[in-house]
Amino acid sequence: MSFVNRLFSYVFNELMVNALANSRTFQRFAVKSDALMKEAAATDAAEMARRAQQAAQDLSKSVFEQSKGGKGPMGS
């Protein structure tokens, strides 16, 4: 039973891989999906860098204010 199951799975996978590999529609879908994922990752990375830079600026500003004797964000 296990052998038949593995054989069926192998044949099915081979047929599906060959069908998708030779499909122009699937190839276009794969290329567009890849481009969208890369763009989303780059956008997320840029947004994270912008937020980190803003947080660093806010922190340095509050440290500078505290050292001048002003109240910082912690209320000290």
UniProtKB/TrEMBL annotation:
Residues 54-76 are annotated as: Disordered. It comes from Ostreococcus lucimarinus (strain CCE9901). It comes from the Eukaryota. This is Uncharacterized protein.
